[in-house]
Amino acid sequence: MTLAGYDAEIEDSGREARSREQQALNHGIALLQKIQSGVLASTEEADALLYIRNLWTFFIEDLSSPRNGLPEQLRAQLISIGLWVVKEAERLREEQLSDVSDLVAINIVIRDSLA
Fold first, then answer.
1. In this structure, are residues 63 and 78 in contact, taking their beta carbons and an 8 Å threshold?
2. Are the CB atoms for 86 and 51 separated by under 8 Å?
3. CA-CA distance, 91 to 103, in Å (whole number)?
4. Three-state SS for 110?
5. pLDDT for res 10
6. Taking each helix axis from N to C terminus, what angle separates 42-64 and 72-93, rounded to the nearest 10 degrees?
7. What is the pLDDT, as a whole number, of residue 108?
8. Most distant CA pair in the chain, distance
9. Most buried residue among 30, 83, 88, 95 by CB atoms closer than 10 A?
């Protein structure tokens, strides 16, 4: 394989990773919107918040890795956002907070930035 072939392969795998991240965020956003509309039972709501928390924990771990290719400053900013999302999801789960609109909005912004 030529150097150009390796570059194309790396680019393709990066696009695939972003696509999977978008799909995961789409699912999380849909769950948050269901919470927002009040259609979930309390156990389903807790599961939805757990999904968001676990998703962002995964993102934070990936962003913390020295193997992550994003610029360090961007990684730090995304980690900060991720920590906020995890904290807010936990506050919602513990019923210290009742409005999910900020969580929906930030997840949409992050998802859209992956395009």
1. yes
2. no
3. 11
4. helix
5. 44
6. 160
7. 98
8. 56
9. 88
- Give the Cα separation of 91 and 98 in Å (integer): 8
**Token output for 66:** 């020295």
Single-letter amino acid, residue 87: K
Question: 25: how many CB neighbours lie within 10 A of its CB?
Answer: 20
70 Cβ neighbours under 8 A, 6+ residues apart: 63, 78
Using CA atoms, how far residue 76 sits from 16, 66, 97, 115, in Å, is 23, 12, 26, 20
pLDDT of 115 reads 80
**If you write DSSP's letter for every residue of 22-81 in order, what string do you get?**
HHHHHHHHHHHHHHHHT-S-HHHHHHHHHHHHHHHHHHHHHHHSTT--S-HHHHHHHHHH
Residue 77 identity (one-letter amino acid): Q
In the numeric block, which tokens belong to residue 64? 């913390």
User: pLDDT means per 10 residues in the chain (115 residues)?
Assistant: 46 79 97 96 95 97 93 96 97 93 97 91
